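Whiteboard transcription, Tuesday session. T.W. wrote the structure tokens on the left side:
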């Protein structure tokens, strides 16, 4: 009986230590999650401010009120603006991580011109194709009807797919 009582006592002691370790691990994980959320909130502000400036100034230059910019300059400015807008949407996607974790992610469905989205996306990769024996092209119908989708999420999918294709194609 004494041996059984000693065995049960040791087993209870192990179980209590395991429960305490589990509680501690949970507290550490919750603290890490809070730190991550605070970091994301701070970084989003720090990244958005200069990025909005880049997008805003590219919009100002695209107005070309003095008419001194060439077509090629305007094209580059459009790509700078599109890249800035894409980067801003990626930052917003990172911030949506907390919404995903909380089960509150929502799809923003709006009419999207698929041909324009694809053409702009392809154009944004022009710089990565220079000097490489790769051609990036899309074969789209002449007249497409706008589709209902989340433009930012579709853009992110296209960018990831095309980026990986370029990265891994020799």
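and on the right, the sequence the group agreed on:
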């Amino acid at each position: 009986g004494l041996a059984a009582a000693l065995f049960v006592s040791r087993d209870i002691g192990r179980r209590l230590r395991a429960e305490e370790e589990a509680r501690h691990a949970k507290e550490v994980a919750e603290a890490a999650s809070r730190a991550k959320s605070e970091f994301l909130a701070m970084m989003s502000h720090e990244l958005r401010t200069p990025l909005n400036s880049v997008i805003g100034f590219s919009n100002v230059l695209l107005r070309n009120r003095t008419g001194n910019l060439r077509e090629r300059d305007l094209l580059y400015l459009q790509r700078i603006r599109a890249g800035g807008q894409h980067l801003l949407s990626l930052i917003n996607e990172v911030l949506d991580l907390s919404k995903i974790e909380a089960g509150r992610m929502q799809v923003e469905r709006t009419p999207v011109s698929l041909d324009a989205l694809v053409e702009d996306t392809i154009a944004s990769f022009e710089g990565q194709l220079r000097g490489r024996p790769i051609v990036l092209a899309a074969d789209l119908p002449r007249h497409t009807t706008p589709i209902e989708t989340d433009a930012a999420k579709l853009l992110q999918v296209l960018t990831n797919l095309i980026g990986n294709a370029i990265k891994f194609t020799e």
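Someone added at the bottom: The mean pLDDT is 83.
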